[in-house]
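Hi R.,

As promised on Friday, here is the backbone we talked about, encoded as structure tokens. Could you run it through your design pipeline when you get a chance and send me back a sequence?
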């Protein structure tokens, strides 16, 4: 063989790897004949190592330059090092406490990788004080053990099990090279020989340090790039947030109501800020509770269930309003640490974040803007500043909207009041002048002319009828004045409603006969007795009957029913007349309101009768209700009055309510009651009614008088009206609750108010009342409520 060359790798008996180059050539004689062959064996291990090293560095450099994600590049370098430079390779980045975060792990076989991962999981990386092997690395020096001693493992191990796991790895030789950038050590690359049996030499250490330098440079470049990128993104976010505020500011300038302001903030702010849900809450008029004005991203059932809640509630929104300080909660753990009693809010098990800022108006918090995030957040100073600015803008916009809304409401109320006043004065003038015409006309004729007896009688009847009509109009006006001033007096006594109804029927019978209207009566066979003013209740029934006759066409029918309804007596007046439109039905009992106030109207009157009726019924502790299918379909008026408690009643069956205690005179025996109501008749009625159950009642007409009584005595319970001059019921109870228990600060309290809506009930409870009883209240209902509340204390 002439000119043959072959490179081959051999393993020596000591385990070392050598490379040789085999070459052969022939020697020829003068005649061109081969004489012999020459073979040369050349050791080329150093060249091969140099080539391998160069190739490794080229590949590593290419990997490090291929991506700005150093996690990816370091993983590639670790994989490249195995098995060329190590049986396994690990890359760690140091944390602030010098514990290690593993970035990359590469192994020659899968079982070793699993063992290493299990070891890392069971024994996480310790800090610098607990890991002697890494102390040298963190000082910027490489760790080099061509022959790895077992003593090092014993020093590293935390317990015997840990030592056994480390020994099972079979470590033979180790290099740990620090990663440094700009004079700071931030990580390390570990190269380990184990199952291959190879051992590191100085050349390997030089190669590893070269790779580490290149890796550190690549990581530093990646970090600089990321910092630049983050700075750019921060700048972009700042610009975007500025644009967001500009858009929201422009939209807020067009919002005319607090609801519209809340809509703008929710619809634009929540999406722009990346939140999954948000809400705007405002203080109620009394400043004692928060009300949800707008909320998005929450289940509607949750919103409906918590429409309002007291300002004292232990929740973030209420806390923000009380303190005026924002709340930023980065994750679920922080939420649970701060609000352990709200662990079930939100109900998800995923991580989340929450931010809530006050809405400021003239230096005071008037509500909150809250945002919920589906994932954990880091609320930096920039974001917090944005939220606070948004909250401030929202608060200012709501202040403007409230002023505008108040102005609009005041203008509309003034216009409505002026219209009603003008209509009423026109009707009043008409109704007062109309009877004067026949009175004055017939009076003049009788004085100046001679008539026969029949004409004189007709003239005098006309004068008397119109005088009575004018007297009734004036009496209605005086009644309204007395009612509005709280000076209407009731002469209360025991009375049978059948007698009262019969008397009222006599006053309208002639008018009904004149129109051929049939009046039918349906009375309960039982005695129906109530406590009340006979004349005033006769006035109520007469008014309802006269209206029925007045608005029922000729040939129609009017029915009046009297029956017992539980603890109430019910009187129904049913007619087949004009009926009431659905639009006017809610206002049928208002003062100075008429369904037809035009000059073309068919029926006269001032529109005061039903308003007076309602107030008279309420002063008797009763209720009145109007119903009508519509115009031309008749109307039904139902009055309910509390029965006299010893009035004969049907024997209850086995399914009757537990309220059989209503017949017990001693239900409130020994109970000291403080009753506060600015209406004299209401005070007198409830005093009388509660005393029938054995209570001792101290009745006062103002909140200030109630506070004086509480300073001088210790009643068992407080019953307070809400709507009172100077100091209302809410203000009264706040003053009471500020007192110590010895000063009656914890006295049980019931709100006894004609403000009967759900909102009013919630407001009363938020103010500190334990119960809300709506007027008109049945005495037995009120007495039972008192008993139940006292038992709970």
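Update: got your reply. Pasting your designed sequence below so it's all in one thread:
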């Amino acid at each position: 063989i002439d000119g043959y060359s072959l490179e081959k790798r051999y393993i020596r008996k000591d385990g070392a790897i050598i490379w040789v180059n085999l070459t052969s050539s022939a020697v020829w004689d003068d005649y061109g004949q081969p004489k012999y062959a020459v073979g040369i064996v050349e050791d080329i291990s150093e060249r091969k190592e140099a080539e391998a090293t160069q190739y490794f560095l080229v590949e590593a450099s290419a990997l490090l330059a291929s991506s700005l994600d150093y996690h990816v590049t370091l993983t590639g370098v670790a994989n490249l090092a195995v098995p060329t430079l190590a049986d396994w390779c690990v890359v760690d980045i140091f944390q602030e406490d010098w514990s290690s975060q593993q970035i990359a792990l590469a192994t020659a076989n899968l079982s070793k990788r699993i063992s290493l991962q299990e070891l890392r999981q069971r024994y996480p990386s310790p800090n610098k004080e607990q890991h002697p092997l890494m102390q040298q690395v963190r000082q910027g020096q490489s760790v080099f053990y061509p022959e790895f001693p077992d003593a090092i493992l014993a020093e590293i191990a935390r317990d015997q099990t840990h030592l056994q796991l480390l020994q099972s790895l079979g470590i033979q030789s180790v290099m740990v090279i620090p990663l440094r950038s700009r004079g700071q050590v931030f990580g390390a690359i570990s190269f380990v020989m184990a199952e291959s049996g190879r051992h590191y030499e100085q050349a390997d250490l030089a190669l590893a340090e070269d790779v580490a330098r290149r890796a550190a440079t690549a990581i530093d470049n990646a970090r600089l790039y990321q910092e630049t990128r983050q700075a750019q993104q921060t700048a972009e976010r700042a610009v975007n947030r500025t644009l967001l505020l500009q858009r929201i500011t422009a939209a807020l300038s067009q919002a005319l109501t607090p609801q519209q302001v809340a809509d703008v903030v929710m619809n634009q702010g929540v999406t722009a800020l990346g939140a999954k849900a948000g809400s705007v809450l405002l203080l109620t008029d009394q400043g004692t509770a928060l009300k949800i004005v707008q909320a998005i991203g929450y289940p509607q059932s949750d919103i409906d269930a918590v429409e309002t809640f007291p300002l004292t509630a232990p929740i973030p929104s209420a806390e923000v309003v009380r303190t005026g300080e924002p709340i930023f909660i980065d994750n679920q753990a922080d939420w649970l640490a701060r609000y352990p009693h709200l662990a079930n809010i939100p109900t998800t098990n995923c991580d989340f974040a929450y931010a809530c800022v006050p809405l400021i108006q003239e230096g005071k918090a008037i509500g909150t803007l809250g945002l919920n995030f589906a994932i954990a957040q880091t609320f930096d100073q920039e974001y917090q500043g944005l939220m606070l600015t948004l909250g401030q803008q929202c608060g200012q916009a709501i202040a403007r909207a409230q002023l505008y809304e108040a102005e609009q409401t005041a203008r509309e109320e003034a216009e409505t009041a002026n219209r009603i006043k003008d209509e009423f004065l026109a009707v009043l003038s008409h109704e007062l002048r109309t009877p004067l015409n026949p009175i004055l006309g017939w009076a003049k004729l009788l004085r100046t002319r001679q008539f026969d007896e029949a004409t004189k009688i007709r003239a005098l009847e006309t004068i008397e009828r119109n005088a009575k009509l004018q007297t009734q109009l004036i009496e209605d006006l005086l009644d309204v004045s007395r009612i509005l001033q709280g000076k209407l007096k009731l002469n209360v006594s025991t009375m049978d409603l059948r007698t009262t109804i019969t008397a009222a029927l006599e006053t309208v019978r002639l008018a009904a006969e004149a129109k051929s209207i049939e009046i039918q009566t349906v009375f309960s066979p039982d005695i129906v007795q109530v406590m009340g003013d006979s004349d005033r209740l006769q006035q109520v029934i007469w008014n309802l009957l006269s209206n029925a006759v007045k608005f029922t066409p000729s040939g129609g029918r009017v029915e009046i029913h009297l029956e017992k309804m539980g603890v109430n007596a019910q009187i129904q007046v049913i007619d087949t007349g004009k009926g009431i439109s659905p639009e006017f039905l809610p206002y049928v009992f208002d003062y100075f309101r008429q369904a037809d106030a035009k000059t073309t109207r068919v029926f006269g009157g001032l529109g005061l009768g039903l308003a007076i009726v309602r107030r008279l019924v309420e002063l008797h502790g009763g209720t009145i209700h109007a119903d009508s299918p519509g115009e031309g379909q008749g109307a039904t008026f139902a009055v309910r009055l509390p029965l006299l408690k010893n009035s004969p009643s049907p024997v209850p069956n086995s399914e009757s309510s537990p309220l059989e205690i209503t017949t017990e005179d001693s239900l409130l025996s020994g109970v000291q009651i403080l009753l506060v109501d600015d209406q004299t008749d209401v005070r007198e009625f409830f005093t009388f009614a509660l005393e029938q159950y054995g209570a001792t009642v101290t009745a006062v007409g103002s909140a200030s008088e109630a506070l004086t009584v509480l300073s001088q005595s210790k009643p068992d319970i407080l019953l307070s009206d809400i709507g009172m001059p100077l100091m209302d019921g809410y203000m009264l109870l706040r003053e009471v609750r500020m007192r110590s228990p010895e000063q009656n600060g914890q006295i049980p309290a019931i709100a006894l108010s004609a403000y009967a809506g759900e909102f009013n009930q919630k407001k009363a409870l938020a103010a500190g009342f334990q119960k809300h009883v709506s007027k008109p209240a049945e005495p037995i209902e009120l007495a039972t409520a008192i008993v139940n509340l006292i038992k709970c204390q």
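One thing I noticed while checking it: Residues 595-606, 647-663 have pLDDT under 50 and may be disordered.

Thanks again,
M.
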